[in-house]
Amino acid sequence: MSNTLSLSVGHYSQTGRKAKNQDSFGVLTPEEPLLTSKGAVAVIADGVSSSEDGGKASDYSVKCFLSDYYSTPESWSVKTAGQKILTALNRWLYGQGYHIYGTNKGLVTTLSILVIKSTTGHIFHLGDTRIYRLHNKEIECLTQDHRIQVSEDKEYLSRAMGIELNIEIDYRSISVNEGDYFLFSTDGVHEYLTDKEIADYLYNNTSDLNKACQLITDNAYANNSPDNLTCQIIRVDSLANPDAHTVYKKLTELPFPPPLSAGMQLDGYNILRELYASSHVQLYIAVDQDTNKKVVLKTPSLNFEEDPAYIDLFLHEEWIGKRLTHPHVMKVYEHKRHRQCLYYVSEYIEGQTLRAWMRDNPQPPISEMRVIIEQIASGLRAFHRMEMIHQDIKPENIMIDKHDTVKIIDFGSTKIAGLEEITTPIERIKLLGTKNYTAPEYLQGYTGSNRSDIFSLGTIAYEMLTGQLPFGELDKKSQRLNYISACNYNPDLPMWVDCALKKAVHPNPTRRYESLSEFLYDLSHPSPFPLREKNPVAFWKRTSMAAMVINFVLLLLLLK
C-alpha cells in the first residue's frame, strides 16, 4: 500500500460554437508536507455568458483558489479554508464587477471544487458545473445544479460566484477510495450526453484520460451543444494511508535524549538546571550559546520511548507552538542547529503561574481580574483563529512574567481541526483537560468547541474573584451541575458580574457565550437587568409592585 496520495489527470477544453472559451479548470498536487497537510485540489469553472466578462471571472476563480488554498493555515479544516477563500473571492468578483462594469453581472462564474485530503474528498459547489464520481462502472453526480425553472423552455442560474455580495456555498465530504474516478464537466458537456455515455467514454479509454476527455467533449459537440465544452478527469491511483510500521519509523527518527543536568551541553545549549519534571516530561532552563539567551528545553520521558501515540502528541505540541505567534502565547523556537535527539525549545518566562498569583492575591479587585482574563482571552483568540481549541486552560497553564504579561503555556491537549482530518494508524491520545476546568460536554463524550475554552476561562475568572469553584469540586460522575452564585462567597461582587460568570460556565454549551468578546464585554459593562438574570421571581415581584404603585398614583391624579 502506498503512503502518498497519487493522481492521474486528463483534461480537454474547446471553444465549440461560441466565439470565446470562457471555461477554466486546473489541478494542483503539491509537494510534501503540503500534500499531507492540505491535500490535492481540482477545480472547474464556467464563466456565465450573460455577464460582461465571464471568462475573466472563471479564470481568476480557478487560479485564485489553487494558490490561496495552500496559503491558508495547515491547522484549518478543509471546510473552513475553502469557505473563507470563496467568500473573499466572491466579494472581490462582486466588487470588481460593479467597479468596472457598473452591474452585478460584471464578473460571474460557476465553480466546482474537489479537495482530496488523506482518505476524504471535500466538495465546494456553486452553479451548474458538475463533479461526477465513477467507481465499479457506476456513475454518480456529486453536485446539484443551482437552477430555477421559469417556464417550460426557460431557466436561469440561482447561484453563482460574483452575482451577489453574500453567497451560500454547497459543501459536502465523501469517502475516497483507490481506483475512484472524478469527472468534472461544464454544462455544455453534461447537458448533451447521458450519464451512461459519459461513463462509457471514460471506461473505454482509461489508459488515456486526455483522450477520454476529448471524446466526451467531441460527442457533446456532435450532439449540437452550442456552448463551450470542458471535461477534466482525475483517477485516484493511491491514497495517503500509511501503515503503522511506516508511521512508527518516522516518529522514532530522533532518539529520546538522556536525562540532563546542570553543566551538560546539548546541540549548543548549556543546561543550567532542571525546571520541572514529571512522569511524562522534563523541562530544563538552558542558555543558547549563539545568542546567550535563556530558553527552556522540553524533553520527552524515557518511560514512553516506544509509545508512538505519546511521541505523536509530543511532536504536535511543537507543531502548534511554531504556528502561533502571539504576545500572550508561549513562543516555541525553530531549530537553528541540527538536533541529535527529540526535544523542543521555547521561551523562558521569568515569573509565576496564575495559581501562585491567586494564592498571593485572594479575591483581587475586579479591575485586576479583568486585566488578566483579557490577556488570556487574547491568547485564546490566537488559537481559535487557527481553528485550534486549547482544551486545558487552568491556572497552572497560565504564566505571568515580571512585566505582568500573561502567557498561555502547555499545548499538550490542543485539538487541531486540520490534523484531525488526516488518517493515521496511530491511536491519538485525547487529553481533555483538568478536573474542575474541563467543560461538561467533554465528560459527556461530546466534541468540544471554542465555547469549551470559554467555560474554562469563566471558571478561572470565578475562582479569582471568590477563591472557590462555580460548581464545587467535580468528578466524572457529576451529572447535574448546580451553579453557586459568586456573590455567596464575595458579597461585594456586583450581580451583573455574577450573571456574566454564570453564563460563561453554563453546563449547556449552546447557552454559553458564543464568543470571547461577548464574555469580556459583559465583565466590563453593567447589565440593565441583573436581578432578572439572577432571580427572575424576585425581579417580576418587584416589577409588579412598581407597576401597582404607578397605577395607584395615576388613579389619584385622575380623581382630583
What does this structure look like?
The protein has 560 residues and is an alpha+beta fold. It folds into three domains: 6-240, PPM-type phosphatase domain (Phosphatase 2c, domain 1, 4-Layer Sandwich); 245-347, Phosphorylase Kinase, domain 1, CATH 3.30.200.20; 351-527, Transferase(Phosphotransferase) domain 1 (Transferase(Phosphotransferase), domain 1), CATH 1.10.510.10. The protein has helices at residues 34-37, 54-68, 78-101, 187-190, 195-203, 209-222, 244-251, 308-323, 354-360, 366-385, 417-420, 440-443, 450-466, 495-504, 516-524, 530-534, 536-559, and strands at residues 6-14, 23-28, 40-47, 109-117, 120-126, 130-135, 138-141, 147-151, 154-157, 170-175, 181-185, 229-238, 265-266, 269-277, 281-288, 293-300, 332-333, 344-347, 351-353, 388-389, 398-401, 406-408, 415-416. The strands form six sheets. It has a six-stranded antiparallel beta sheet with strand order 13-14-15-16-18-17, covered by helices on one side. It has a five-stranded antiparallel beta sheet with strand order 1-12-11-6-7. It has a five-stranded antiparallel beta sheet with strand order 2-3-4-5-10.
Number of strands: 23
User: What global shape is seen?
Assistant: flat
- Biggest sheet: strands, sense, closure? 6 strands, antiparallel
CATH superfamily of the largest domain: PPM-type phosphatase domain
Give the strand line-up of the largest sheet.
13-14-15-16-18-17
Determine the N-to-C terminus distance.
97 Å
Content of β-strand: 15-25%
**CATH fold-type name of the largest domain:** Phosphatase 2c, domain 1
